[in-house]
């Protein structure tokens, strides 16, 4: 089990000695015991750190945000940032290292193991509790999840309450870290690509119907893009609003910006947006599942990313975020790459 | 479905091989269907997947990406990068329900005028029974 007191102690020590400019971790939220991500800058607040199955957020995102924030400062704080990372977060950090978005010296990684479990899906919990507020949610024995409702202790099977991504996860402990808490229990999910294969087995017509229903709901709120640690581009190619316009930008420069798709959430434009996003995440997505969690319409975005993840494995034997030294998938090639589809 | 529909194909041809190959077909006075709109790019490696998706979005019935044979790239390895990238797109489009025939990739060298005409003929023959592509097309 992860001893949270050890994490708190280490975070406190790092902050007291001024070795880091902050610790990004989880603290109890204000509502129903759900943890929230928090940037701790005072040593005494390190006591608030928690680690339980409600720590759903991918904290690698805050490394990206902090990096952008520091770049704007006149006198940036050169000290590293300490981050609590679980398995998927650490793989996201690995991809950022691989792409040289950050250097290894810029982060201190406090790795925590998800043990034999994972994080919970809020929708599943709400459904199971029939809308009642969970007072406390914590790890139980053998990967079970303990939920306290109105003082009553209920134990749930991980299959019932864990997020889909955790049920399909093969990296339940960090692959890169400076400090490690908990145990490394290697788990093998029964069928990580079962959902993708199910959709593939449908006929073309049925797949089309499925995706039309999904994409028609998209509001293009870009929540999936905002929450993704890999979507760090300052200007998003499929979103003309994000083009940087400065006082010195001339009308001609504005006119030259290519508007690939319309802003309006039409079915066809939604398709292109999600396809482009999926392609841009090919070989980079670590399946942290944040895009699907934050989607207000509950679109199965993970199904797209998971498909490309499987193709990367099947065609190129590549798993994103496992090796920060290896070249990234699309910036390299092999002579033996498959080309049977080429005329 | 309208069987008489004349498919519109957008072809991204690399300047050094495939575009020269299509030129070869022209100067050799080989006949091929006029359904193709060629766009010359500097290298097949410079073709971003968004070009292809945008072509479908703006009403193309089929998209062809064509480059030099492996090892013949003017920029040494541009076509090898393209091969990886297009492999993903080739898998992804049918997964979303677009007919797999609508997107093709080929290697055409500057001397292969005949191969180029054959590819266009085959492509048009494959697209005709499918009718117009309305799935990704913008309906404004």
Largest sheet of chain A: 5 strands, mixed
| Range of strand content of chain A | 5-15%
The overall pLDDT of chain B, averaged over residues, is: 92
Number of domains of chain B: 1
- Count the E strands of chain B: 4
N-to-C span of chain A:
55 Å
Report the total helices of chain A: 13
User: Biggest β-sheet of chain B: count, sense, barrel?
Assistant: 4 strands, parallel
Distance between the termini of chain B: 22 Å
Molecular structure report:
The complex is a heterodimer of chains A (343) and B (140). Chain A is α/β, with parallel strands linked by helices and 343 residues long. Chain A has two domains: 141 residues, no CATH class; 140 residues, no CATH class. In chain A, β5 and β6 form a beta hairpin. Chain B has 140 residues and is an alpha/beta fold. Chain B has a single domain, classed as Rossmann fold. In chain B, 37% of the residues lie in helices and 16% in strands. Chain B has four helices and four strands; from the N terminus they run βαβαβαβα. In chain B, strands 2-1-3-4 form a four-stranded parallel β-sheet, with helices on both faces. In chain B, α1 links the parallel β1 and β2. In chain B, α1 crosses α4. Chain B is globular, with a radius of gyration of 15 Å. The two termini of chain B are 22 Å apart.
């Amino acid at each position: 089990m992860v001893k949270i007191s050890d994490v708190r102690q280490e975070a406190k020590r790092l902050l007291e000695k001024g070795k880091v400019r902050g610790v990004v971790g989880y603290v109890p939220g204000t509502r129903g015991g759900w943890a929230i991500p928090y940037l701790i800058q005072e040593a005494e607040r390190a006591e608030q750190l928690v680690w339980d199955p409600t720590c759903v957020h991918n904290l690698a995102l805050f490394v990206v945000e902090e990096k952008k924030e520091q770049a704007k400062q006149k006198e940036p704080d050169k000290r590293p940032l300490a981050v609590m990372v679980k398995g998927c977060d650490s793989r996201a950090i690995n991809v950022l290292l691989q792409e040289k978005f950050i250097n290894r010296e810029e982060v201190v990684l406090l790795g925590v193991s998800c043990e034999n479990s994972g994080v919970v899906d809020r929708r599943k919990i709400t459904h199971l509790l029939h809308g009642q507020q969970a007072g406390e949610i914590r790890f139980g024995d053998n990967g079970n999840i303990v939920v306290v409702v109105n003082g009553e202790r209920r134990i749930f099977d991980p299959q019932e309450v864990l997020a889909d991504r955790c049920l399909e996860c093969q990296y339940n402990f960090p692959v890169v870290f400076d400090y490690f808490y908990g145990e490394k229990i290697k788990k093998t999910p029964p069928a990580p690509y079962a959902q993708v294969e199910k959709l593939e087995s449908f006929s073309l017509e049925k797949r089309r119907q499925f995706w039309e229903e999904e994409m028609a709901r998209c509001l293009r709120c870009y929540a999936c893009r905002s929450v993704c640690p890999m979507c760090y581009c300052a200007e998003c190619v499929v979103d003309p609003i994000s083009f940087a316009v400065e006082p010195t930008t001339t009308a001609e420069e504005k006119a030259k910006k290519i508007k690939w798709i319309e802003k309006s959430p039409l079915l066809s434009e939604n398709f292109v947006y999600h396809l482009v996003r999926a392609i841009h995440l090919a070989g980079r997505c670590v399946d942290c599942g944040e895009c699907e969690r934050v989607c207000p319409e509950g679109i199965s975005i993970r199904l797209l990313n998971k498909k490309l993840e499987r193709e990367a494995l099947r065609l190129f034997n590549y798993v994103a975020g496992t090796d920060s030294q290896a070249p990234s998938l699309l910036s390299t090639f092999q002579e033996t790459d498959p080309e049977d589809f080429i005329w | 479905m309208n069987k008489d529909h004349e498919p519109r194909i957008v072809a991204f041809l690399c300047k050094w091989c495939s575009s020269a190959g299509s030129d070869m077909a022209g100067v050799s006075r080989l006949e091929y269907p006029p359904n193709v709109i060629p766009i010359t790019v500097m290298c097949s490696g410079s073709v971003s997947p968004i070009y292809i998706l945008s072509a479908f979005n703006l009403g193309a019935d089929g998209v062809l990406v064509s480059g030099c044979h492996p090892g013949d790239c003017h920029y040494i390895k541009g076509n090898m990068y393209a091969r990886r990238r297009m492999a993903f797109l080739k898998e992804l489009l049918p997964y979303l329900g677009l007919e797999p025939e609508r997107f093709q990739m080929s290697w055409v060298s500057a001397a292969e005028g005949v191969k180029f005409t054959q590819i266009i003929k085959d492509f048009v023959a494959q697209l005709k029974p499918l009718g117009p592509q309305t799935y990704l097309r913008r309906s404004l």
